[in-house]
Structures are given as structure tokens and as C-alpha cells.
Write a structure and sequence with these properties.
The protein is α+β, with helices and mostly antiparallel strands. Helix content is 28%, strand content 39%.
Amino acid sequence: MTKKFTLIAIIFFISQSVFADKKLTILGKEFSFTISEPKGWYCECEGDLAANIGANAAMWRRGETMETAQPLIYLRVNSRGKSAVDDIKSGIEQAKKQNSKIQFKDFKVENANGETSAKIFKIGKDATEYVVYLYPKKSVKNAVSIAMHIDKREASTEEIKIFQTVVSSINWMADEAIQ
């Protein structure tokens, strides 16, 4: 019994240390929120790299570059529409116009801080994108879309857990940026 308990404790400790994170603040013209940077990952949230892909922040494993990252997680702050569900429907319609062969699967988001809607966008054998629209509390006028892009494969269990951790770590500080 003691060996079993010790083994469980060791596994728990290792799993916690693998996904331990650093809190970062993302600031913009009309928003501010915190997000967790997973251990072993890098978040570009102040330079031009994320902005070059139309994002407010981008994350990838340390040792990779944004251009070669597998996977690449990116966040984009959007004006708030009717709902997260409406936003995902709009995203699906736009994706179908760009590529009629794209396929969609449901994706469940756990422990997010607000209303969410999520889908997996499967672009043939070329890429898979996990997309989440997050609407924080109603007093916040912005929403955020979070995506994890991977070329030529689907995400591993560990990558999905990291993505879920990033999504659930988003906490809006205020509707206006603190600058």
C-alpha cells in the first residue's frame, strides 16, 4: 500500500511540474488579461511576431521558432458578438468558403472562465486546428479566440492538455488596458 501511494504521489508531482506555468499579462488598447505560459514553452506577447499573424499572443515550445512550431498556439482578441456559439458558426462558414473539403469535429473545453464554443478544423491531411471562442463575463466588451495549429497530424494527449490549460488560464483583468 505504501509503495502504491508513493508511486501515485510521484506521478502526481511529475505531472504537475510538466504543466507548471508562468503568469503573463496581455495588454492591448481596450483589454487586459492574464494567461499562463506552460512550462517549457515561450509566449510572444509584446513583439511583432504574434502581430504578424494577426494575433495578440503566440506560444510555442522553447527550442523551436514560431515558423517551425508544432504545435503553435495563438490568441486573438475580438469584438464581442452575440455569443461564442455564433462566432464558431461564423468561423466554420468562412473556413468552408476557403476550403470545401474541410471537416469539423466537436471539441470539449474544460474549466474555461466564461462561455465557450469549440471545434476541431481538419484540413485534409495538411493541418489540424483546435479553435475555441471564449466570452468572459458579460461586463467585458471583448472576446478572445484561441487556436492550436498543427501540420500533418492531430494533437497528442499532452498537447491537448497544454492547450486546455492555456484556455482555462485566461482571466480578464479589465475592459481597458493598464498602460
